[in-house]
Amino acid sequence: MKIIKPNELNIDFFSSFKDNWALVVTQDTKEDNAMTIAWGGVGILWGREVVTVYIRNTRYTKHMLDGSQYFSVSFFDDKYKDKLAYCGKVSHRDEDKITNAKFTRSYEDGVLYLKEAKITFILKKIYQVDMPLDGVDEKIVNRYYKPNEMHTQYIGEIVKVIVE
Asked: Is the Cβ–Cβ distance between 3 and 164 less than 8 Å?
């Protein structure tokens, strides 16, 4: 494990989210969870280095992330694609995805992440907002949403970047 500065990363985040996916890992006082995401971004907001992720309001992970001050976002080598697919299809309501996918739980400053990741952002949540669909192009709404669905945007300030 090595800690680096965010500007030391040389990675195409467009492909990383869209094609390779990532895992949001969070925990509360009772449980932990990992959820596959394909929507997100890395950038600057309010003069801070941040990662932005989007969680659908129907996902089990949402209530855990709502109650957490810290979370992690991890990117993996291609050999883990089947495990990321599993974490995107199965709900933690039904089973312990981290254990069943045979990921190794690790902690950095008390924040859970998965040791197998090649890049992990340890994040402090600095903002979240429900994203109403008012004004969103109807074609987008029809393609991505069922009735009463929406996303919450979570913005996490980068506390550390871990590379394995």
From this structure: no
Domain covering 2-163 in this structure, CATH number:
2.30.110.10
Contact 87, 37 (CB under 8 A): no
Please report, for residues 36, 66, 149, 155, the alpha-carbon distance to residue 48 in angstroms, rounded to integers and kept in the order given: 25, 21, 30, 11
Q: Over 90: is that where the pLDDT of 17 sits?
A: yes
d(CA 132, CA 3): 37
Residues 66 and 51: their CA atoms lie apart, in Å, by: 16
The predicted model scores a pTM of 0.94
Question: So what's the pLDDT on residue 52?
Answer: 98
- Distance between CA atoms of residues 38 and 61, nearest Å: 15
CB under 8 Å to 149, separation ≥6 — which residues? 56, 57, 58
Are the C-beta atoms of 56 and 148 separated by less than 8 Å? no
pLDDT number for residue 12: 92
Residue 33 contacts residue 87 (beta carbons within 8 Å):
no
Question: Distance between CA 76 and CA 133 in Å, rounded?
Answer: 31
Distances in whole angstroms, Cα of residue 25 to Cα of each of 21, 46, 70, 106, 138: 13, 24, 10, 11, 32
Annotated domain spans of the chain: 2-163
